[in-house]
What does this fold into?
Amino acid sequence: MRGTARPRAGYALVIATTTASVADICAAAKDASRTLGRVDSGAREAALEAMAAALEDRTGEILEANARDTEAGVEGGLDAALLDRLELTPARIASIAADVRRVAALPDPVGEVIEGRRLANGLELRKLRVPLGVVAVIYEARPNVTVDSAALCLKSGNAVVLRGSSSAEHSNAVLTAVAAEAVVSAGLPAASVSLVAGGGREELRDLATQAGLVDLIIPRGGEGLKTTLSRYATVPVIYAASGNCHVFVDVSADLGDAVAIAYNSKVQRPGVCNAAETLLVHEGIAADFLPVALRELHEAGIELRVDARGRTLAGAALAPVLGAATEDDWDTEFLARILAVRVVDSVEQAIEHVNRHGSGHSEAIVTGSTESARAFTDAVDAACVYVNASTRFTDGGQFGMGAEIGNSTQKLHARGPIGLRELCTFKYVVEGSGQVRA
Amino acid sequence: MRGTARPRAGYALVIATTTASVADICAAAKDASRTLGRVDSGAREAALEAMAAALEDRTGEILEANARDTEAGVEGGLDAALLDRLELTPARIASIAADVRRVAALPDPVGEVIEGRRLANGLELRKLRVPLGVVAVIYEARPNVTVDSAALCLKSGNAVVLRGSSSAEHSNAVLTAVAAEAVVSAGLPAASVSLVAGGGREELRDLATQAGLVDLIIPRGGEGLKTTLSRYATVPVIYAASGNCHVFVDVSADLGDAVAIAYNSKVQRPGVCNAAETLLVHEGIAADFLPVALRELHEAGIELRVDARGRTLAGAALAPVLGAATEDDWDTEFLARILAVRVVDSVEQAIEHVNRHGSGHSEAIVTGSTESARAFTDAVDAACVYVNASTRFTDGGQFGMGAEIGNSTQKLHARGPIGLRELCTFKYVVEGSGQVRA
It folds into this structure.
């Protein structure tokens, strides 16, 4: 366990919340959410604009707090990648502020009429999008997630309870204080944004069991966090999932497109959830496709783990650089510069492989056949199914949803990018003139 | 534990499944769901039509099986209400068959384009409604739920795993057999409909932990079932909730409408989830409203539990028939001929009461004021909020959703009536022409 953040003039508001219990913080957030749910979008937008301005105005203070975290990280032996994720710079803060302004400018999801009709008895029924209430976001090192999550939750009319990692505690405290003060300056309750201090399991369990106060938990972290939550949570959780994604190159694929899509899906950013992990190739095109595609992938530094048929069809020239795929490889989300490769007999076998081994995230077929495209999009059980495009497009921004807080591979409520709408629920409002049921 | 159903020629199909483990049944259902998810709506409709016809053709056999259950129920000392729920008659079977035909005729939710657009890079994005996969329905005595659940799940393209109570085991076995044979006659897999034998806790736990095979559990039973599920389930559950619903009579209400709506919300069917449990009355109208409304409610046999101010304002004539409300009454779902009554100072106090004590199901305001109506619909945190109409309208059929499998007070995925659309998820299908991410 770590000590709590020492009081500093700049984040007095946060200090007040860090001494409160998790239950008290959540109860205050619930109260704040009642107000947030009723204010017009203008007030929420103003809070975000104020937040962006405050981030810029108070860059020095934020950098100072961040330096304390990075110094502690260096002393504590954090590796270079984690230190990089932890570190804020003036440019990064400016970019965070710009993101907040971008979220502020998105269309308001709250109050949107999803559907509606006049019933035979004259009742006017509307299904309206409304905020969930209190959203808790649990995340790891990156302090930018503090602001990003606060902005998305406030924009969608929700109060947010943040629980970052202890390695970023000073950064998160000052960023939350900046956000909460901006919210107050826009006339909204301070408890619209709050931070749970302490990175321990106890706080996590406390937070995960505030059913009735917290309406949704979004974990943005690794598998350990997810396992803990699935064991303890009584609050609904949407898991921002990693992905075991596939690209299938059908016999009728355009070779150029197939190489480009396979390459882009793997190489453009190998460590993210929508990157491809396995390449499936129809046997009828493998002898043409594999020598070209695997050469390019190898030259991009990708380790290739190929089944026996694929190694043969790739040709002798590539043999020295191809490893052998194992059964385990089909089930592994490498999130790294590794690609498994398998030759299949048919689109049906590709579909069967994807549905057996995939995580239901993003799956692509490259094909010139409308019949194969239809079979693949009908039968593949995944959040996002692509025809002749890279799996890397699974992203709230790319989809025109404005922004996202993660990607879901669940089937209930949110599937695919979790954007502003997915941070909302709905209610039926039914207006009558004295109707009673016969 | 009970014995398993004895083999009978008429339900050979079911016997095959009752000897299988819960995991095997769910795996077979998952396989069947892959087929169901790809067939056109015509095949699913044909299966439902065949099911309705088979229910009629095999009425004798169904009645025979049902007689065994009711005889066992009489011997086992089931009370009259439960026996009535258990009993099938030719008229009830005809009504069940008619319900199946009604579901068959509903618009197909599968494949509906929820939204879609062409992205700047030329990608064609569609968000399509698709079946969840395997839906498990857990229910108590009433055997009509077997057919009803099967019809709704098949119509929405899902395989269904049914788990009824042991008191209806023979009825459920023959009804499931009839359904499964009808499904087969329409060319769909038998495992589209299956029954888990045994009403024990063990089967319940087995079913609740088939994550990856079962996509959703819908419990249609009492609080004990829900508590068990919330403890063990790793599969997502949508709780078909009971409701603590309110009618608030504002100062500006039309007196005739207010009396009619309060009466209808409580009296029309007191034992159901959308019946009112507490009546809130603005103090400015209470002296006019309460003497009339409470008289009518009393004459309808409703036990009235009224706060002190309400008892005074109701007048001396009613005093002998009014009980005193306690704090506990505000939190109680009577589901009976009992109504709690409280006088409040304002619409804000009514909102505060509803949000504190309500279960988020159905809440009504009776008012002549657009301002009060707006305040109530904005601030009340519930699935269905009514202005000048009875709470009793919360129902999939009434809402024009065709049919429902229950009502949800959850905020994620399904809120309010759980109809065919709520038994679906969606997927994004994105069609390109070689697009890769820059």
In short: The longest strand of chain B covers residues 424-435. Chain B touches chain A through 64 residues (CB under 8 Å).
